[in-house]
Amino acid sequence: MPALADLVRPYAGITLTDSKTLFPDAQGTGLPLIRIDTDLCQAVVAPQGAQLLSFTKADGTPLLWLSPQCQFEPGKALRGGVPVCLPWFGPHPDDNKPQHGFARTSDWALTQVAQADNGRCELWFELEHSGDERFEQPFTAALRMVLGQTIELELGLTNHDSHAADFTWALHSYLPVQTLDDARVPVLAGRDYLDNLQNHARLRQSGPLTFTGEVDRVFPDVESEVTLEPTPHLRLSHENCPSLVTWNPGAEKAAAMDDMGEGNEQGFVCLERGAVLDEGWTLAPGETRRGKVTISAL
Asked: What is the SS3 string spanning the chain?
């Protein structure tokens, strides 16, 4: 496998750097990062977790939020951007296994880089799992990242086991808001959801979803595009991602999180597309399935 530096070197506007350089005040021993700086966007990507950390359009519009207290430590989840939660989403029945799986804290291999004439950059990452005590079935995860005027993330999963394998997953996107009290998701009005704060109780959303206090809800079978209003006005579209998870920790929990901190919950909401709970994927031996999310500014 070519080294990171060798893969990115031929492309103007794509450089290998590190967290100590880009975030000198951040905690942690540091991680390698990839910086994208083109006529269309500025972005930062961490090979750990194949995680898009930040993205700003050329006109200055941010499409993602990164915690000012993000800790760049090998093996530690990075707070913000778009973590890849896989091969399970949320807590595992075995308390000894990590929340949201291990993909977001694993080193992914950068396998290919491309830059189109229109300025869009493409990066391909792969994570090969041979099967172990964390997750018995061997699988490969592949993430295609397209960065231009929008963000496109396509996740593919291949089951290499001789038996069917069950996966739940989400692209855990942190979206910026100017004022949390004003943030709303109109399309969810009147929809049923499963409340993670009430043991997955099925409830109905009254009016647009807002974020007053802690919110942790799973909206199943959301086929439509989802918009976050009012500022910035963002849109999430998807292919083959039936679940929509909505989250903000609220003031009390945020203050207790060392990689978020008091008051920083005011800067974001999470709208996460994927396949969770009963909408998870069961892949037959050798089967590959893909889901895609596009984030854009309106």
From this structure: CCCHHHHHCCCCCEEEEEHHHHCCCCECCCCEEEEEECCCEEEEEECECCEEEEEEECCCCECCCECCCCECCCCCCCCECECEEECCCCCCCCCCCCCCECHHHCECEEEEEEECCCCCEEEEEEEEECCCCCCCCCEEEEEEEEECCCEEEEEEEEECCCCCEEECEEECCEEECCCHHHCEEHHHCCCEEEEHHHCCEEEECCCCEECCCCEEEEECCCCCCEEEECCCCEEEEEECCCEEEEEECHHHHHHHCCCCCCCHHHHEEEEEEEECHHHCEEECCCCEEEEEEEEEEC
pLDDT score, position 236: 98
pLDDT value at residue 1:
56
pLDDT reading at 13 higher than 90 = no
172 tagged catalytic: yes
Identify the active-site residue in 100, 129, 172, 238: 172
pLDDT tens figures, 208-217: 999 999 999 9
Is 73 assigned a catalytic role?
no
Q: Exactly one of 73, 154, 265, 272 is catalytic; name it.
A: 272
